[in-house]
Amino acid sequence: MSLLQAMLACDAALLALAVVGVSAARRAGAGTFVYGAALALSVILLVAAAAALIGRAAPVGLTLPIGLPWIGANFRLDALSAFFALVVNLGAAAASLYGIGYGRHEREPGRVLPFFPAFLAGMNLVLIADDAYTFLVSWEFMSLASWALVMAHHREAGNARAGFVYIVMASFGALALLLSFALLAGPAGAYTFGAMRASSVPLGLAGLVLVLALLGAGSKAGLVPLHVWLPLAHPAAPSHVSALMSGVMTKVAIYAFVRVAFDLLGPPAWWWSLAVLALGGMTSVIGVLYALMQHDLKRLLAYHTVENIGIIFIGLGLALAFKAFNMPSVAALALTAGLLHVFNHSLFKSLLFFGAGAVLTATGERDMEHLGGLIRLMPLTAFAFLVGSVAISALPPFNGFVSEWLTFQAILLSPQLPSWALKLLVPAVGALLALSAALAAACFVKAFGITFLGRPRTEAAKRAVEADRFSLAAMFAFATLCLIAGVVPGVFIDALAPVVSGLVGARMPVQMGIDWLSIVPVAESRSSYNGLLVFLFIVAAASLGAATIHRLASDAVRRAPAWDCGFPEANPATQYTATSFAEPIRRVFGGFAFRAHAAVDMPAPGDMRPARVKVVMYDLVWETIYLPIVAAVTHLSTRLNRLQFLTIRQYLSVVFAALVALLLVLAAWP
Amino acid sequence: MIDLAVNLIFQLLQMLLVVGLAPLLTGLVRKAKARLLRRKGPPLLQPYRDLARLARKEAVVADSASWLFRIVPYVVFAATWVAAALIPTFATGLLFSWSADLIAIIALLGAARFFLALAGLDVGTSFGGLGASREAMFATLAEPAMIVIVFSLALIAGSTQLSTVAAFMASSAVGLRVTLGMALIALIIVAVAENGRIPVDNPATHLELTMVHEAMILEYSGRHLAVIELASMLKLLLYISLIVCVFAPWGLAIADAGVVDRLIGAGVYVIKLGVAGLILAMFETSIAKMRVFRVPDFLGAALMLGFLGALLLFVSRTLK
User: Number of structural domains, chain A?
Assistant: First the structure.
């Protein structure tokens, strides 16, 4: 049995598991069974994907007699599919493990259990689909299954709206992808990916295909301005599903874009990269600025996904630019950076959502303003969340830093690009990337600091208990992986080589043979980084410092009330909150990003009422793009509404007029 | 083998040198500032005595502090020390100089700041939060400014490896460039802000609403405070070393230089540090502190200068 057949069998088993989920949901232990089985199947899929990727298996295809009658359902497993399948199933395995514990707190398991395995199967099928029909059906299946999961707690405030916005945006994205594939298939109707690869699209149309793919995949991945559904829908789902949607499903969208732009579409035109880079840079900064303004922990994480998608698209855009100008080795560097960030982000974003879920279970709160001090009650969760926060803030020696470092290295090679527009755009994108990295660090000081540090702000936060051992196992597995991928990134870069060389025709130099496990993207005299040594140096320096001081000086500790300059205040409300922490940053960036302004209502002297600060912020993307569309649609439908109340004579004349018009069009058609 | 041993010794020497000189540099700046104000000032070696005294005292830890509070000083110190050890002070191409480039050094300092800000939030007092929040705001502008400065340096020298950059700057291949001037000014602005010097923050204040760094570490005492103070002294030395090794690399022993050259390099380095310390003292005495919300403009200027410099380089590549 080939690996592809094994994967298809597992996907079929996941679908069967979904059916079991429907019937068994009400029984005790159903959750453990469904999540346990999903865990086992994900691990098998993970092993198969890893075997295909690391074993450099030649691409294999398979056709099943379902789907469109004249082409059937085609599946294919190549290096690109295998890499994304690895990312998806790693996240799926951890989410299933987490779900075994977390799912016990689910009040209505019947709304989650059937859709969870179906969602996993949908994502897996997208990755191995090899014709447009199978791809789109799987894509829609994935969207609908995740929509059902978003709506699992549909009675909670805001969730119904989140589900509605999500389904509208998902339909829009699927439509864009459908049109994109239709253009790729051409008038001959070559719907298999193999035929699309073989035929070439005229250059003008190719640009249109790319824009449509960018809209379709971008709306699922969360590219600004198509991101609006993401911060609503991701937090609404149960936390392990949020982890899957943010950490993994967005990666499936990246896969769709990479598949179309690098594989199916043929040689790129250089200006495509302009659009991708500009969108990527804008997305990364806007995403993190929105994240900084949030005080709902899960929504903050969701906005952060938007930022990281921007970083990934910066890598992809650079790779497109270098590929267009026939610089395959640099393109390989940029693409490796982007894909490595795909892997890294799936690790730490899942980890952080798991942590947020643990907090939600322990306290019933997602609002950071009601939390605080959890590090003492949930030390293990806090530690894992801290690792995820450091990793996502791109700080060494963790994995987020490596992929951003590689992206910077690719940016520094871009003055060689022979295009003025790119020469001006790329340094700006580099500066935006640096800005978003710095803002991300601030954002996670806030997220971790307000949630886990300080003193508890509410009774709920005081009563928190540590998460169950399944959840902790999932979190610690990913925290360990974050460290491993940060200290020996060479392994992961080398594993990406077949993917990258299949897409841009070159690969990065072999990293594993280099002394001390350094990574050297181009040449050692140019740049190198050794996560392992940096990690060891930090550990050694810290323990040396601690040991010296404890031995030679003093190790006495006395506990005492906080000092706070002599004016400690017992009320925990006097602590900094999420909003007040972000206030300086809002003052610096909020003016143009949100048109934010604060009005102080100061009572007159002698008046006893308290002074109030009112901050007004606008979601500019929502108000400048979406609200006008909503208004136009509402206006149009109100107009059309009259058609419902016509007399029979009027209906007949409308039908007649339509018929005449259609015949006229047909007659005038060339 | 002997070569490796010699290299290892010089690497260790560099690590000890930076940590040994850092308090002296701070002492020099304090003394010079005092003399400029016609005060007598503390002795040059006072920072060493302060550190030793703090280290011997028991550490008073707030009731509400967590385990993070107690490990942060060592993490901050370690990250800063590793970063400082990677900067070519008296010689380039030391044994481990390739293990992290300039971007990684900036990120290491970012990690130190990340943990320090967390420590500020840990006890749950308003002053700690204030310091952490303002530090985060400064960092969001200072860090990208630093990165765009790195763009300029890396494009001129063709490397982000600090040893290579310094060697290139010491060679005659580098001419007078507009970009370098912009990068220098930007780097100085960032260095002033990152070290909390006047006009951004006042290292000598306590109990003032304008303070940033001191507010974050307000709850620390005893050996924890000593380690954090040492880390911030190291950070000052690090930034001065960085500016010196890139913009005044004279006397630096290049890659395979002999032992004598390296020792000479060390002597020259100490002199350069002293001069830089005096300039800093004069600069600080001659201006006043600015309001907190003027700092973003100040740092934004650095960001724009650095960006402009990098842009010039990106564009000038075609004109060649």
Answer: 1
Q: Are A311 and A341 within 8 A, CB to CB? A: yes
Can you tell me the distance from the alpha carbon of A348 to that of A404, in angstroms, rounded to the nearest whole number?
14
Q: Is residue A638 part of a domain?
A: yes
Q: What is the pLDDT of residues A74-109, one digit of tens each?
A: 999 999 999 999 999 999 999 999 999 998 888 888
User: Angle at the Cα of B39 (from B37 to B40), degrees rounded to 5?
Assistant: 140
Say if pTM beats, i.e. exceeds, 0.90.
yes
Whole-angstrom distance, CA of residue B84 vs CA of residue B93: 14
Does residue A95 contact residue A108 with C-beta atoms inside 8 Å? no
Sequence-distant (6+) residues with CB within 8 A of B88 are B94, B97, B162, B163, B166, B241, B245, B252
User: pLDDT at residue A547 above 60?
Assistant: yes
Closest CA to A366 of A221, A227, A229, A238: A238
* Rounded mean pLDDT, A559-584: 89
- The amino acid occupying position A638 is T
Specify the pLDDT at position A511.
86
Cis peptide before B42 (omega within 30 of 0): no
Residue appearing with tokens 């909390």: B196
Nearest to B111 among A395, A434, A549 (CB): A395
Separation between Cα atoms, residue A17 and residue A44, nearest integer Å: 15
Task: Please say whether the beta carbons of A416 and A462 come within 8 A.
Answer: no
Confidence of residue B209 (pLDDT cuts 50, 70, 90): low
Residue with structure tokens 């450091």? A390
Phi, psi of A373 (to 5 degrees): 70, 15
What lies within 8 Å, CB to CB, of A556 at 6+ separation is B58, B59, B222
- Whether A626 is covered by a domain: the verdict is yes
* Reduced DSSP (H G I as helix, E B as strand, rest coil) percent helix, strand, coil of chain A, to 5: 75, 5, 20
Domain ranges of chain B: 2-319
CB pairs under 8 A between A and B: 304
Q: Would the pLDDT of A477 be above 90?
A: yes
CA–CA distance, A396 with A333 (Å, rounded to integer): 20
User: Which range scores top for mean pLDDT: A162-166, A604-608, B205-209, B216-220?
Assistant: A162-166
pLDDT of residue B60: 94
Tokens of A211: 């824009």
Q: Are strands A597-601 and A557-560 parallel, antiparallel or unpaired?
A: unpaired
CA distances from B297 to A439, A588, B138, B291, B293 (A): 17, 9, 10, 11, 8
Structure tokens at A137: 């059906």
Q: Which helix (H) or strand (E) holds B60?
A: strand B59-62
Q: What is the DSSP letter of B161?
A: -
Residues B298, A639: Cα–Cα separation, whole Å: 55
Q: How far apart are CA A292 and CA A301, in angstroms?
A: 10
A374: which chain B residues are within 8 Å (Cβ-Cβ)? none
Listed residue (B169, B167, B140, B135) closest to B152, CA to CA: B169
Alpha carbon of B36: minimum distance to chain A alpha carbons (Å): 30
Query: With contacts defined as CB-CB under 8 Å, which chain B residues touch A540?
Result: 78
Kindly determine whether residue A553 and residue B56, on different chains, have CB atoms separated by under 8 Å. yes
Binary contact (B317, A439; C-beta < 8 A) = no
Q: Tell me the residue range of the domain where A634 lies.
A: 620-668
A54 Cα to chain B: minimum distance (Å)? 27
Q: Is the ipTM of this complex over 0.90?
A: yes
Residue B244 has pLDDT above 50, yes or no: yes
State residue A541 phi and psi, 5-degree precision.
-65, -40
C-alpha atoms less than 13 angstroms from C-alpha of A219 in its C-beta half-sphere: 20
pLDDT bracket for residue A67 (50, 70, 90): confident
Task: Mutate one of B118, B214, B220 to test the A interface: name it (highest A CB count within 10 A).
Answer: B118
